[in-house]
Amino acid sequence: MRLLISDANILIDMEAGALMDTLFQLPMQFGIPDLLYYEEIEPGSPGLQDLGLQIMEVSGDFVAYAQQLPSQHNHLLSAKNGPKPSHNDYLALALAKQEACTLLTGDTNLRIVASKEQVNVMGTIGLLCAMIENQLLTVDDAFKALDRMKLGKRRLPWPEAEKTLLVQTREPTIPIGTRAGG
User: Fold this and answer.
1) Tens of pLDDT along 30-84?
2) Given strand 2-6, what is the order of strands in its sheet?
3) Is the Cβ–Cβ distance between 62 and 97 less than 8 Å?
4) The whole model's pTM is what?
5) DSSP symbol at 75
6) Buried-exposed string 116-138: b where 16+ CB fall within 10 A, e elsewhere
7) Beta strand spans in the chain (E)
8) Is 125:155 a contact under the CB 8 Å cutoff?
9) Which residues of 48-153 form beta strands (DSSP E)?
10) CA-CA distance, 98 to 92, in Å (whole number)?
11) CA–CA gap between residue 101 and residue 3 (Å, rounded)
């Protein structure tokens, strides 16, 4: 089964969209660095281990790798793309590299660094599409989840999200927030 390593914002998106249970029904395994989990996720969302989230240790070599990433990349990252990745974000990237798997993040600057470090990335929109493809979610339910994320002040590329989901059904464009039940 495919392993994906998540940063905090993906799990927060899933929670805001009321999709946490659905996420763990995907035919994938999800991991997160132990430090990131205990500092950022567990206080507000305990029990994710019971759903299947793997709390994973970043090895010493990859902790060192994570520590040198800011000096290599932060000066090249644009503030217009949001905040620079945190130490915990870089730990998620390091764990994905350690495990040779995909990093789950919606953080634009972390995606840029991951690309430069040759780590594959998937975001919330990709997970929504996977849920639809695995028949865990209808396209309409995915739009409702996006509405909840938007109301929860999550930061997604809303036009891209809509367009991607519409390709799933070839429905006419209906802006987020205007669907029934949204």
Assistant:
1) 999 999 999 999 888 888 999 999 999 999 999 999 999 999 999 999 999 999 9
2) 54-56, 28-33, 2-6, 102-104, 121-122
3) yes
4) 0.89
5) G
6) ebebebbbbbbbbbbbbeeebbe
7) 2-6, 28-33, 54-56, 102-104, 121-122
8) no
9) 54-56, 102-104, 121-122
10) 10
11) 6
